[in-house]
Structure to design on (187 residues):
């Protein structure tokens, strides 16, 4: 079932991070990590070549109100994004009656391997189940994206199936593993 999300006035805080809505002033930080080859490509979009591309994406984030900016407290800069998107499960008759969103995330290459994405995702997962009262979350990764796979598994998601996902932005199809996390799994 389609669930409308509006995170524009939501702020989540962890030990090292603040998750909040995007602001126009985040442009330089966003472009700094979104322009690095290999970062966006692992999420299905080409790395940004101009600040104008990044500005357009931030504008979209601000309009859609479903993507958090991840701010590193010590550095006081945006180092990634974590979004709540429509899930493929919404089109599956087995799950279509449930309140489900899909978790999508990207992190600056400079911050990989520090446990920051699981930290951010745990805060968003708690928000999804406690505040939004979702029944489940889905998450996926391209089969060759082992870093995302580790994050997803650390968070307790269970493998459901592998599908072919078309990335129009990259002009190719990716074998993609999908996972699900049920609200009652955290009880």
């Amino acid at each position: 079932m389609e669930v409308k999300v509006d995170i524009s006035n939501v702020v989540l805080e962890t030990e090292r991070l603040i998750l909040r809505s995007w602001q126009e002033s985040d442009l330089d930080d966003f472009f700094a990590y979104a322009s690095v080859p290999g970062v966006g490509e692992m999420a299905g979009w080409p790395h940004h070549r101009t600040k104008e591309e990044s500005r357009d994406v931030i504008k979209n984030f601000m309009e859609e109100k479903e993507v958090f900016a991840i701010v590193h407290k010590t550095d006081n800069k945006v180092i990634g994004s974590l979004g709540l998107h429509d899930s493929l499960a919404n089109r599956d008759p087995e799950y279509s009656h449930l309140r489900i969103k899909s978790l999508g995330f990207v992190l600056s290459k400079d911050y990989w391997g520090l446990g920051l994405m699981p930290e951010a995702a745990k805060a968003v997962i708690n928000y999804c189940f406690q505040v939004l009262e979702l029944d489940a979350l889905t998450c996926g990764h391209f089969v060759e994206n082992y870093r995302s796979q580790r994050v997803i598994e650390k968070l307790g998601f269970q493998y459901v199936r592998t599908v072919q996902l078309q990335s129009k932005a990259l002009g190719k199809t990716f074998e993609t593993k999908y996972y699900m996390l049920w609200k009652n799994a955290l009880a």
Observations:
- Residues 12-186 form a domain with the Aminopeptidase fold (CATH 3.40.630.30).
- The chain has a mean pLDDT of 94.
